[in-house]
Write a structure and sequence with these properties.
The protein is mainly α. It has 1 helix and 2 strands, in the order E-E-H.
């Protein structure tokens, strides 16, 4: 009985080996694509987290500035009221 082979002038291969090779190529490319996709998603997530932390920091700084301004205005108002009471 003769083994079935695919014959191209360069090489000959058994069908079973050819199918296994195709399967390996498909699995390999799917795995590679999955790894690349995961790496891209991780990069996007890292950039988002960095921007988020920057936004949170800016927001906290702005809040602190506003609280300081409010505190200063309250002190000025109290001082003005005290001056007004003392002048009467």
């Amino acid at each position: 009985m003769e083994d079935k082979t695919t014959d191209e002038h360069i090489f000959s291969m058994r069908y079973r080996n050819f199918v296994l090779m195709l399967f390996s190529i498909v699995v390999g490319t799917n795995t590679g694509t999955g790894l690349i996709f995961n790496q891209e998603q991780n990069t996007i997530q890292i950039e988002y987290n960095k921007e988020r932390s920057d936004r949170k920091l800016k927001s906290a700084i702005e809040k602190a500035k506003l609280e300081l301004t409010i505190e200063t205005l309250e002190k000025q108002l109290k001082y003005c009221k005290d001056e007004n009471i003392n002048s009467n």
